Here is the input.
Amino acid sequence: MASLEGCVAVVTGASSGIGEATARELAGHGATVVAIARRKDRLESLSSGTANVYAVECDVTEPESVRRMVDRTVSRFGRIDILVNNAGVGLTGPALQVDLDDWRRMVDVNVMGVLNCTHIALQHLVDAAAGPRGVADIVNISSVAGRKALPGSSVYAATKFAVNAFSDGLRQELASKHVRVSIVAPGFTKSEFIEHIRPDLLAKIRASLEAMPAMTSEEIAETIAFCVTRPAGVAVSDLLVRPTEQER
Ligand code: NAP
Here is the structure.
């Protein structure tokens, strides 16, 4: 597997779950990793326990916060080769019971967060692709819900359908510039994801969620690493990864 020595990777949502595992995984492949999220304490415990992982507090919904993070990354490490747009929330529940604010937050984090980070980092990725590695990477974390909407997760699904559409259009725009755009769509994965569902709604579904077959965050992190360690001439555009026993 190709080494990521000399590469700088930005991983959003790195304070828990898939993002935290991805920060460790990419650092294990030799990358310098800028781990971003809002919970500074969690990022600092990740960075203090993992070589080559640096914590930067950043809210992906705020363009100015993203701009500061990108400027700090480039002024300290000189480049951005890999952007993993992983930060996301799934505030699921029936339309008649959820709050409008939860819908807005999902759109803000899952869609605007991806757009903010991509837009602000893009020129640096294009510049990196013109360097000796010959390629740069954007990996957008979608979901099984980005392929099929189900009752109770219509808005979450809408955000992930949006991520897929954005990724595929951007992939075609950036192909000639050697910036690969990959979609990684996980099935059910153990993380803090369900903890953000409104407590009264979660109480009703926690047992069924906990009984579902699940993957580990590390297993999805390995899939992300697979995408970014392909040879420069090979782009993995779209991967759907489910627990073996997950039916839909
Ligand atoms: P998680 O453990 O809850 O992690 C979510 C991460 O997003 C946290 O690090 C959180 O950090 C960050 N985040 C949330 N709002 C943010 C903001 N405004 N700015 C910056 N960071 C923010 O959940 P996960 O399962 O690892 O989720 C990661 C991705 O996988 C999401 O895109 C999710 O949709 C997707 N996914 C998950 C599953 C699953 O079953 N777990 C399945 C399919 C897809 P802070 O709170 O510290 O900011």
Observations:
- Residues 32 and 52 are 5 Å apart (CA to CA).
- The pocket of NAP is lined by residues 12-19, 37-39, 42, 59-61, 86-90, 109, 141, 143, 186, 188-189, 191-193, 217 (CB under 6 Å).
- The chain has seven helices and seven strands.
